[in-house]
């Protein structure tokens, strides 16, 4: 940690003495704390107030609630420091932080993720078992936060998600709307954004073989094998055999790895193993990589990117979160270690993992909620083709008009700056928007931050700066 001692010391000087349930910086720019969403179930949150906020009474400043995937990956860790927060994984200012366009609320969701925790020895009994239960806990947290914050109540709320977080986003949005109707939550839900989101597992697994064949990662034999297992998954899902389908999904990842020389599921231009080269082959390597992806692939990919940063500490990203960040926050239980991916959370949600959430997206559209879908061009696990396939299944009455609407290019040259290079396309009709982000894989804000920031400004209508 000594290599960044100056920056870390400055960071720690900002810390207030933590109150029983929370803490924050002396200038009020950051707040954090715990909410006991159920008896013995504690969810951690961290809110950043934007220095760019304009309180002129004409344009309400938005709040973005960021939901990470996994399920079980830490938004407080990865979404914050790796993707959109004010500081990067080396605690240096991020030029393309989303804080330029909105206040940012990070939550370690569901309980058991990151700094969120459950009490007692039987952890599994207190974990959320369904996407709906996870949404209930998250809305309980929002009710508590908004109840005590006039500033939050005056700010339009946008739920922005990545990967499995998209399933949490749509279920949470519907639960939040219900809580608003009941008078339990004083918030204005202004929109939901689904980034490379696991909304329809079936459409994604059906897309893997054809996509890999088209980009030369599998041959005809590999395509046939992928399609065969995907067809089995389709049959299982039609029979509502969701746990069996989850096991077959893992089998399909084995087949993909064996036939593609371990393609990276989060950017198909890369290999799964460290670096961009694969030196291990055979059944043992395939089994090892499938296990890695199944439990740690999503957060593991982010972790590998953090490890490659120029000034990573010897303790790695885990070390940063469990030393400097934990000390700054001041309220994390001493015996609680931050982890990149919670196996307990993943296992608890296995029964819901392969269930689609297309109907929930449809409900939000019919209720008039602004829904934005964005996808990285190079993603495999939530490939753009799979996303478009589930969009075609929507029953929303504006779908045909959306599909026939023209696409508009988005230009960027450098990070955060307008330019002449086509970096994305957008299509919109009424309250549905779709962004195709070029040169990006699963983690769009990392891979191509400029169009991601432009997208955020557009969907939140943040005041121009």
Automatic annotation (TrEMBL):
GO terms for biological process: proteolysis. It is an enzyme of class 3 (hydrolase). Its EC number is 3.4.16.-. Keywords: Carboxypeptidase, Hydrolase, Protease, Signal. Residues 1-22 form the signal peptide. It comes from the Eukaryota. It holds the Pfam family Peptidase_S10. PROSITE patterns: CARBOXYPEPT_SER_SER (PS00131). Coiled coil: none annotated. Gene3D superfamilies: alpha/beta hydrolase. GO terms for molecular function: serine-type carboxypeptidase activity. Belongs to the peptidase S10 family. PANTHER family: OS03G0393066 PROTEIN, SERINE PROTEASE FAMILY S10 SERINE CARBOXYPEPTIDASE. This is Carboxypeptidase. It comes from Sorghum bicolor (Sorghum).
């Amino acid at each position: 940690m000594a290599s960044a001692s100056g920056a870390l010391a400055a960071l720690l000087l900002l810390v207030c003495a933590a109150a029983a349930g929370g803490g924050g910086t002396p200038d009020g720019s950051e707040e954090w704390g715990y909410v006991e969403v159920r008896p013995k179930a504690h969810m951690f949150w961290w809110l950043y107030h934007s220095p760019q906020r304009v309180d002129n009474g004409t344009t309400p400043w938005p709040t973005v609630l960021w939901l990470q995937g996994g399920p079980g990956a830490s938004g407080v860790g990865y979404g914050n420091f790796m993707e959109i927060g004010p500081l990067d994984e080396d605690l240096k200012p991020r030029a393309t932080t989303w804080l330029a366009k909105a206040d940012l609320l990070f939550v370690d969701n569901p309980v058991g993720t990151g700094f969120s925790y459950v009490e007692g020895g039987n952890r599994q009994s207190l974990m959320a078992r369904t996407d709906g239960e996870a949404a209930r806990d998250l809305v309980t947290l929002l009710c508590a936060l908004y109840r005590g914050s006039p500033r939050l109540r005056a700010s339009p709320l946008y739920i922005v998600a990545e990967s499995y977080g998209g399933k949490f986003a749509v279920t949470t949005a519907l639960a939040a709307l219900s809580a608003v109707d009941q008078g339990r939550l004083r918030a204005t839900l202004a929109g939901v954004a689904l980034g490379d989101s696991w909304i329809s597992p079936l459409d994604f697994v059906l897309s893997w073989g054809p996509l890999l064949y088209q980009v030369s990662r599998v041959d005809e034999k590999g395509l046939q094998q992928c399609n065969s297992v995907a067809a089995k998954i389709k049959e299982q899902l039609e029979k509502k055999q969701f746990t069996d389908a989850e096991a077959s999904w893992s089998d399909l990842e084995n087949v993909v790895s064996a036939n593609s020389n371990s393609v990276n599921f989060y950017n198909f231009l890369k290999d799964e193993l460290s670096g961009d080269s694969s030196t291990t082959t055979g059944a043992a390597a395939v089994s090892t990589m499938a296990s890695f992806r199944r439990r740690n692939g999503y957060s593991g990919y982010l972790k590998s990117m953090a490890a490659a940063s120029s000034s990573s500490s010897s303790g790695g990203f885990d070390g940063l979160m469990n030393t400097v960040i934990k000390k700054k926050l001041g309220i994390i239980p001493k015996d609680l270690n931050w982890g990149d991916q919670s196996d307990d959370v993943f296992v608890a949600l296995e029964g819901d993992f392969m269930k689609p959430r297309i109907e929930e997206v449809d409900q939000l559209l019919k209720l008039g909620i602004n829904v934005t879908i964005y996808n990285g061009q190079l993603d495999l696990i939530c490939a753009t083709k799979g996303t478009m396939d589930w969009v075609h299944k929507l029953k929303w009455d504006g779908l045909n008009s959306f599909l026939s609407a023209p696409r508009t290019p988005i230009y960027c040259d450098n990070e955060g700056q307008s330019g002449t290079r086509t970096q994305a396309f957008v299509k919109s009709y009424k309250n549905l928007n779709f962004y195709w982000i070029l040169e990006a894989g699963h983690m769009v804000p990392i891979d191509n931050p400029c169009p991601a920031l432009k997208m955020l400004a557009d969907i939140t209508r943040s005041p121009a700066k």
